[in-house]
Design a protein that fits this description.
Blueprint lengths: L1 H23 L10 H35 L2 E2 L10 H12 L13 E2 L9 H30 L8 H39 L6 E5 L6 H8 L3 E2 L16 E5 L8 H13 L4 H10 L1
Parallel strand pairs: 1-2
Antiparallel strand pairs: 3-4, 3-5
Helix pairs in contact: 1-2, 1-5, 2-3, 2-4, 2-5, 4-5, 6-7, 6-8
The structure holds zinc ion.
Length: 283
Amino acid sequence: MAAYQLAQEALAGEFAARWAEVLAAVEARQVAASLTELEAEWSAAIRESAAASHALSAAFYRLVRALETGRVIGGPGYRPNSSLGSLWADFNQATGKRTGSGPREVLPVDTRNPFPAADLAREARRVEETFRQEVTARVEKHERERAGRQGSAALDDPELIAWEREFLDSLKTGSTGAGGMLVQDAGRTMIHTALQDDPGAIGYYRKTDSSPCYFCALMAARGAVYKSKRTAAFGAHPHCHCQAVPIFSRRYRLPAENEMFARMWREFGGGSLADWRTHYTKT
Ligand SMILES: [Zn+2]
């Protein structure tokens, strides 16, 4: 399941690299005049990586489900006469790596499609909204500050140059984290929603990246989250590469990291979230 988490992280990385290239081509002083072009590039990059995240999630969900229940589920990417072999092939194609294989025996099918249809208009609005917060608002604030500085320094003043660079760096960090979250949310939402609508699924656990923050470590320490009528939102944040791994039988095995976080939580013994944060960062 690490292959899935890493592949989703790589999609966020792919977006980050493309966005970094776009940003590298503009100077701090040109950003305000380039917002329209920047937004077009930003949206296109997110849209493409998010579509890949979607496809990867469906292939992953279908594979895990088949491995645990011996049955194939319908929905996007479903191919007739699927076998564990073909599901592994689909997953390997989506990750770009060969991670496993299986027999060619045709599996029985559940025709239900639990995957939510992509709400493109809603996704586009979220992308637009995030751009406004992470790019437009920052640029406007920066422009106001520059206007306030006007006349106080020459254009080649080292302090001014450093100030402009710092602005671009923070713009890049903020927008890359938020964009990467949108990319991975495409896949995360798909799995999280599919579980609720799939009678075969019993819940999920959180597979963290290699260095999760205290919040994600705590979420992972809880182990399996069994689904209920009101399963809480997954709760990702910028620069978070955690993924939801669906569970279809009580015989699931948690990754070693989740067991480790659970052990840390028991050792911690209790306290506030802030206390846990201190405990977690010290260990
Ligand atoms: Zn996380």
